[in-house]
Amino acid sequence: MQGSQQQQAYDRGITIFSPDGRLYQVEYAREAVKRGTAAVGVRTQDGVVLVADRRTRSPLVEASSVEKLHEVDDHLGIASAGHVADARQLVDLARRRAQMEWLRYDQPLGVEALTKEITDHIQQYTQTGGARPFGVALLVAGIEDGEPRLFETDPSGTPYEWSAVAVGGGRETIQEYLEDHYGESLTLDDGIGLALEALASASEGDLDPHGVEIATVDVEHEDFDTLDPDTVAEIVTEHGLAEGGEDE
Amino acid sequence: MMDDGRGRDGLVPDGSTSDPDPFAPELVPNDAAGDQAQHLDDETVNKTGTTTIGISTEDGVVIATDKRASLGGRFVSNKQVQKVEQIHPTAALTLVGSVGGAQSLIRTLRSETSLYGTRRGDDLSIDALATFAGNVMRGGPFLHTHPILGGVDEDGSHVYSIDGAGGVLEDDYVVTGSGTQLAYGAIEGEYDPELSIEEAVTLAARGVHAATERDTGSGNGIYVAKVTADGVDIEDYDDVAELL
Asked: What is the pTM of this model?
């Protein structure tokens, strides 16, 4: 009896290590990320591509109300997988920090600096009594000093930089596809194709053309650009990834 | 506790997050006597009076200042003040007006530059440093100083005048302090963007010389800082004439 109560203490209280040095609540938060639909990021020489799976649970949901890709500043964007509500809090923090950089130094915030602002914030929720970790993983993409950069944040608050990466449901399959097909010399369009194919690899090779979101930040314009749904559907079809041939 | 109330944000009791003040320096020096200084007697507060000059050239920035501090503008309280200090690997700032305010500003800019460089692995640009300095001047407590910021970064050479209300103005050459008009008179029409560093030193010395001769707040020799992409080199001379 006593034993099981003690077990509950480190199983539920996030500020407490388990005897073998694990933080269960952080691990449960990672599980929450896996339950979310996937987001994929690909860094190319021309810019960074973010692609998100936003399949809806009902055809009656307005697709545009499902937020997976978020503009942070002109030159910065975020894709999320996991709890959307948690993601929104972090995205708002990111937007405030980006503006703070303009106020403080009159300069655009770097992708690495932004990622570390976010992960420092996430980390606080793994060490504070009464708080719950963020059940979300983010891909932070942007241009810094003319170079495309792509970072991942996880619920422990650790930042990682990637050439290409997936978070969310089906991550292993998608990551394997990226590892097999990524090349340094990709163009931005190649990057979109690779991200879509990688995403499709986790769902038997095809995608709902209206269940995908695409955004890019390119080196030339340093501008976060979300593609409109018709263009996205066109690109998915062009790549032969549209499920059941023509949609509708 | 994870938030010491000094900038880095943390959780506040209701679970929401607080934003740090974008204008406040991350570390606040322990001398924020601030506006009290306003009420201090003119006779007891060291002022530099001062002539400080910044000149931008293709190869770097030259900053020259006199060496006098005074009380009430009538008594020379120090004859060997270094009124240009390095605040960044490739930038320097002048002390003008209240010595205490200027020294406090220098400490603040040094710590901000150091923190930024350590955290980000890259130095603040001179433009960002000037913006930040303007925020510090604007945010109070008011420092009663009117420094020149000169530095070199990826974009080249820059000199800025930063006024007491936080105004940040870049120019090819800038003068601040009590000898401003005398020094401008000596420099005006002589500036050329293609000056070498050594020619700029001579031109700046002519400005300090004019102020030394005619401004009671300026004198006792000259400090010269040469700021290039390689760093900041500061020297002083007891007689301005050595550089003319």
From this structure: 0.85
